[in-house]
Amino acid sequence: MKLLYKLIIFLFLVSCGFHQVVIPNLDIAAHRMIRNELDLNREQQQILNSDVDYLLNELTKDIEKYAMPLLTKINKNNVAKLDAKEIQYALSDLYFNGYNKYSSVMAKYIAQLDARQLKHYKEKQKDKDKDVEKRTKDYKAKLVIERVAFFTGKLSQKQIDYLKSDSVKEYYVNRNKERLIRRANFHLKIDEALKSDIQLEREQAVKKVFTDYNKLTYEYFKSPQSTRSVQIIQEVLRMCDKKQLKHLEDKIQATKVWASYLIKHDF
After folding, report:
1. Would you say 45 and 31 are in contact if contact means Cβ atoms under 8 Å apart?
2. pTM of the prediction?
3. Residue 40 CB coordination number (10 Å)
4. Following DSSP, what letter does each residue of 5-37 receive, concatenated?
5. Is there a contact between 149 and 245 (Cβ–Cβ < 8 Å)?
6. Structure confidence at residue 164 as a pLDDT band (50, 70, 90)
7. CB within 10 Å: which end of the chain, N or C, has fewer?
8. Cβ distance 76 to 218 under 8 Å?
9. DSSP strand E in 146-227: where?
10. Alpha carbon distance 221, 12 (integer Å)
């Protein structure tokens, strides 16, 4: 599901005026990301077309159900005051429901992978693990600062110092450590699930691994520790000046525009 959420982040980046160009081609981008992740052959790629359309149509339903109610409540004046749990829970529900559908599709293809494709998939997973490990061992406040600044514009020194503080660093480092543990366990269980010689059994076993992993992630997302991520952002927003609030308002409105357009689009 991370692949599709990367596309959602991409939509944030291009939402200002480009949503009418990007969203109709979102299926092409999603198809490319998934096939490259799994190194699918031509026949598998053709089947993937309908699966991508299914995922994106389901994603739009989930955005309408879980994200839009929150988006309609948010504005520049209250985003720093809303209950952090409410925000985190809405995002958690969106992720959980989307991931369950995504896992069904991924399980089908992973169960079909030959030795060469499976090696490619595992190498991709190792690269992701290395990235998380690097961010755990060598925490870069710059990455967090850039993400926040996208919505607020240039940050003040006070805001930057806060994001560089030991308490914020400790939160992100610990979050990555827990993610590494979950991922390591996930890899082991995928290997175990693929031992069966019967494809249907492999597919069912892989799907269960994805589902179990999603439940653990969902529980973490709804934990007080994970809610801390929203609280960190809200603390920065409470320090915003008028110029930053105007920048934030523009981003919020742009997000509402692309979300509304996405919901209306049929893939």
Report:
1. yes
2. 0.81
3. 20
4. HHHHHHHHHHHHHHHHHHGGGHHHHHHHHHHHH
5. no
6. very high
7. C
8. no
9. none
10. 21
